[in-house]
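Box 3.1 — From sequence to structure: Transcriptional regulator, MarR family
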Amino acid sequence: MKEELLLSNQICFLVYRLDREIQASYRPLLDVLGLTYPQYLVMLVLWELGQAEVGKLCSLLNLDTGTISPLLKRLEKSGLIHRKRSEQDERVVVVSLTDAGKALEEQALSVPQHMYSCLFHNAEEYVALKQMLGNYIDRLSS
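Predicted structure (token representation):
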């Protein structure tokens, strides 16, 4: 048996397991909001920016249009967002929050606080992990 081929030694598997655990921890919190994890990510962007073009959402979330379009349809059907073609360029779709989508932001405030308390003992741990992960993403994407 080759040590470097052990599943437990694979960084990708550890990251995969961590991702699954984090998403499982989010699930009950997001169920209360009526959101899936990918929908929550879209809402985070919209709460931050107020509105965004679909292309911008794809770029920020690292998703393609084939993945984000069904998410947006479900969010629109649930009354949280509006999609509208840009008046300047019909090819561009702008996504904005409805009043219900804006109101959901208040309910969502407890989600990051809960996750922070599950993962970190202090702010220094959070800052260090955020910087380390950002560095890894930069290295792999360059």
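Summary of the box: The mean pLDDT is 95.
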